[in-house]
Amino acid sequence: MDTLLPILAGAIFATGIYLLLRSSLILTVIGIILISNSVNLALFSLGRISTENPPLIAVGSIEPISPFANPLPQALILTAIVIGFGLLAFALALAYRSYRELGTVDQDELLKDAEDTSAGIVPRENLENGGDA
Amino acid sequence: MNGMLVLPIAIPLITATLALLFRKSSYLQRLFGLLGMGALLVSVILIFRDVQADGIQVLQLGNWAAPFGITLVVDMLAMLMIGITAIMGVVIAIYSIYDIDREREQFGYYPLLHILVMGVNGSFLTGDIFNLYVWFEVMLIASFILLALGNSKNQLQGALKYVFINLFSSLVFLFGVAMLYGMTGTLNMADLAVRLPEVENTGLVTTVAMIFMVSFGIKAAVFPLFFWLPASYHTPPVAISAIFGGLLTKVGVYALIRVFTLLFTHDTGYTHTILLWVGGFTMVIGVLGAASHVEFRKILSFHIVSQIGYMIMGLAFNTAMGIMGAIFYVLHNILAKSNLFLISGIAQRLLGTFELKKMGGLYKHYPFLAVMFLISAFALAGFPPLSGFWAKLSLVKAGLSIELYVITGVAILVGLLTLFSMTKIWLSAFWGAVPEEVPDHFGKQPLFGAGGLHILMIPVMIIAGLIILVGLNAQPLLELCMTAAEQLLNPSVYIEAVLGPQ
Amino acid sequence: MKSLILHTATRLMIGIMILFSLFLFFRGHDEPGGGFIGGLVGAGAFTLYAIAFGTEATRKVLRVNPITLISIGLLSLVVSGLIPMFVAEPFLTGKWLFIEWGAVDTKLSTPLIFDIGVYLCVVGFIVTVIFSLEEE
Fold this sequence. Notes:
The complex is a heterotrimer.
Chain A: H1 4-20, H2 25-46, H3 72-102, H4 107-110
Helix pairs in contact in A: 1-2, 2-3
Chain B: H1 7-21, H2 26-54, E1 57-60, E2 71-74, H3 76-99, H4 102-106, H5 109-125, H6 129-148, H7 153-184, H8 189-195, H9 202-220, H10 228-232, H11 238-262, H12 268-291, H13 296-317, H14 320-351, H15 362-365, H16 367-381, H17 387-401, H18 405-430, H19 453-472, H20 475-489, H21 491-499
Helix pairs in contact in B: 1-2, 1-5, 2-3, 3-5, 3-11, 3-14, 3-19, 5-6, 6-7, 7-9, 8-21, 9-11, 11-13, 11-14, 12-13, 12-18, 13-14, 13-17, 13-18, 14-16, 14-17, 14-19, 14-20, 16-18, 16-19, 17-18, 17-19
Chain C: H1 4-27, H2 35-53, H3 55-62, H4 66-82, E1 96-100, E2 105-109, H5 110-135
Antiparallel strand pairs in C: 1-2
Helix pairs in contact in C: 1-2, 2-3, 2-5, 4-5
């Protein structure tokens, strides 16, 4: 396991990089998802894999039965997964939004000719009407 | 133990939840924005008094002793950074009152702004490398939404680049954290600093140092990883541009300064030489990019890149003088750069565009705005007696004292080129003739009085005042930066403060 | 969705699901369970209701806007962290209050407030997402 997991993580990472370099936005998102998973896997294997007692404290005892497994990598991965999930959900929503607004998922098309750069700024007459144009 | 250290994180969080609770009322949200940032500033001043009196302040969250729990640490560097964040927070909260439209307010602009400030403060305060990752993500998710809020075509284009590059950089960072954990079995930065020298495989440590350099380098927008910045920072509303351009990249610089003074000091001949080259190229490429553009905010965005180079150069010198210069440069640059962004926003409100070709006549009709621009632009280029002069002077002195003449020469040359693109803005937008097509209110709407532009002018005047103040009386701030640099170069103080006497 | 089976089953299920979510929430005190998983089950109840009767009806049943739930949840998270600071202990330190009623003891604590915050956040977040997906 100790050699297999890093190899697997590396393979997934490489696949992710390949997908990142494709021109379709959806493939880019999938690439980021793969890289995210490979990093989690790397974090897991770098925390050392061991087959020991679960790190649970029995009733009436004050420490787990040793030797017990290290729970920290799992806590870290759980945090990383939750954060990654949130960010990826946002990335997907953004990709969908871009597709709706700009009508394509091809990055060369998407990133062509930006418009007038002040398009996002709403002109204002005065503050009293709540700032609407 | 200093319980107050949590306030710079807790206050923005409370403000954000209150703003979310009263999201229907623009008035209450603006009020909470001002009050929250004001309270943040007060708490930072209180912490500053403690840091000034007793040195490095530490808080073990949840009463879990280091290195097992999460530690908040405020040394002088973190102190200066949260200080400037609080000042920027107040200024942006004022500017947002006029700059942010009703729709964005309804969509959660204020909660996100406070969450962003919370993430920035958390990154400065934390003493745990995994926690730093978490704060980076908090900051990122808020910045993603702030950047994309509004859905105009160019905003989406900017956001796409920003989001994917930064997601990638976070994953690289996480991988670096995993490597560190695998080598040492700890995540507390002070504990890491103790255990990293004991790692036998120094080649691997250097590799991890490079992983961190790439990750933070993307966030700080250094050469050759900066392309996302000029492609996205000019798209959102000006208040957001200003806080991004001022603060966010500097968090990357802060992280670089932190890890390359505390953790990765085993092979400075290798790592810091790379940093030096990176800094030099960043300076030159950034300023050349600025020279080739004719859009107000794009020029400023390229200048962010260029200025980051100076800070990286100061860090790469690895002497007290160099790091002091880098820290001073960070503080000065946040002020000057944000102010230029804020001024660009006022100019756009008056002329209806950011394209320099279509701008003109600002000096004739709004001389006061022109003076404000001159102060910030000269500070950025490094003219005495403004803040930028002292920043550049200390870096040049640091470079000469360790006999790195070439890079010092490059730094001075880049300063001149900075002046060139500032002059470009000045000549067309301020001194240029009034363009044929201008909005009706140009020349008639006063800066102060009816129309509400004075709300945009207040922050500009506050920052310009600070730039002049720092310029005329640089000694106190220089001394604080020197204290910070000395603390950074002597990590045993930091380690002892966190882990207790060894 | 118009389906007699779904409507009848939902009316029966929703109460049980909310009770079960509260059971999970309180069980989390000493055993597996807690605010997160309890909140998921509770959000599941409202999601089911939204599928059966539509989002308008669910908003009426819920009475408060789900985003308000998120902000109240976040606020209680901060408050639970700030409470120990009033007795000069670091942020987030767990403080406990034991009340003895004779036969059973009641244990009140800041982690409980924290967990309530998590519960509200999870319910609010998922219901917000479901609402915006349904109303798309």
